[in-house]
Design a protein that fits this description.
The protein is α/β, with parallel strands linked by helices. Helix 3 runs antiparallel to helix 10.
Length: 361
């Protein structure tokens, strides 16, 4: 019997987890394309493995199990949707993933640079004084360095050295004066944004880009347009214990959206292989669970604690799920239900490397 999730249930935060090889990525793609087809909800995807960069492309008909008439109808319906899907990637991408440093809040800017208002009071004060002198929100770190360069004050020199030594100003995700940051590059009728974090060169760039993009999406909250924010590999974007100021900034945004986002139409869909490593203040705000195969007894026990509305006997079944099988519970399902993921219509990126090396020679 076909099992459908409740589209309106995604106006709450949702947690999707499953170990590697469970079909989590494929299932998430199926959920996203169905939301695109069945609703007018806007979607923003943080994509660390470049898995969702081809969401605008349909699979060939013979891979969809649709007949010619059904496939023609799908093409007709999906065409306008595909035109509203925009992928932002590395510096050489058609749409570079760039943000304006000056649009970050002062707290976010100083978190990235690291001066403590008490321990490094002089450097902190020098930064505040410098950005106030520059004014507006179109400045970048290069403008801050240029302003500091002409100063003979010791605290200005130390601040400049800090910025240079951290190398934050050199990251390609910052829009310079002549660049168009991603928020300004969006057409008014967009449906989906894919932030291709996998096209960035390092973890640090991914963390800074995630923090910057989450900040941009949060800044647009006053428009009160419903938006589903999908964070794949959420344990890297909003971990329980951030390992750097850049990761901590992304985590802070995710925690704020989890706690305050619903009243502004900001809904989270978090996906992870390691549920116990996602920040507790984010997981605790999730009202729905999509669970796929999970062999770790410790992970299942942590899910029992976080999602007490799901019977333990159902969660215990997760270790026996086959590829593509899962459990849906919470706002996205009227009652807890088992499901098998149907065929995707769109092209999946970042698929596993084929194991042809293991075939007999």
């Amino acid at each position: 019997m076909p099992a459908d999730l409740v589209a309106k249930g995604f106006n709450r935060h949702t947690f999707l987890c499953g170990q590697s090889g469970s079909g989590k990525t494929y299932t998430l793609g199926r959920v996203l394309e169905q939301l695109l087809l069945a609703t007018d909800l806007r979607i923003a995807v943080f994509d660390p493995n470049s898995d969702y960069t081809h969401m605008a492309s349909l699979r060939p008909r013979d891979e969809t199990a649709l007949d010619e008439r059904e496939y023609g109808e799908l093409e007709q319906r999906y065409g306008p949707i595909a035109a509203g899907i925009h992928v932002f990637g590395g510096p050489n991408a058609p749409r570079p993933l760039q943000a304006r440093f000056g649009r970050l809040s002062q707290q976010q800017q100083t978190m990235l640079l690291g001066p403590d208002p008490i321990r490094d009071a002089e450097e902190y004060s020098a930064f505040v004084r410098t950005v106030d002198r520059i004014g507006g929100d179109r400045y970048g770190l290069e403008d801050v360095l240029l302003s500091l360069r002409d100063s003979f004050a010791d605290e200005d020199r130390r601040l400049g050295m800090r910025i240079v030594n951290l190398g934050v100003a050199d990251l390609p995700i910052w829009a310079s004066a002549g660049d168009t940051p991603m928020r300004d590059a969006l057409p008014p009728d967009w449906r989906m944004l894919v932030f291709d974090l996998g096209s960035l060169a390092s973890d640090r760039e991914q963390w800074v880009a995630s923090a910057a993009a989450l900040g941009e999406l949060w800044a647009l909250r006053t428009r009160r347009q419903p938006l589903l924010i999908v964070i794949d590999e959420a344990h890297n974007v909003c971990p329980r214990e951030p390992v750097s100021p850049n990761q901590a900034l992304a985590t802070e945004h995710a925690v704020r959206i989890a706690g305050e986002g619903r009243k502004f139409g900001r809904y989270l869909l978090l996906a992870t292989q390691q549920p116990d490593k996602v920040h507790a203040n984010v997981v605790s705000q999730c009202d729905s669970l999509l669970l796929m195969r999970m062999n770790s007894a410790a992970d299942i026990e942590s899910l029992k604690s976080a999602f007490s509305f799901v019977p333990d006997t159902l969660l215990d079944q997760a270790s026996g799920f086959r590829l593509g099988e899962g459990l849906a519970a919470g706002k996205v399902a009227p009652h807890p239900l088992r499901f098998v993921t149907g065929r995707r219509y769109t092209v999946e990126g970042g698929a596993d490397i084929p194991s042809t090396w293991a075939e007999p020679r």
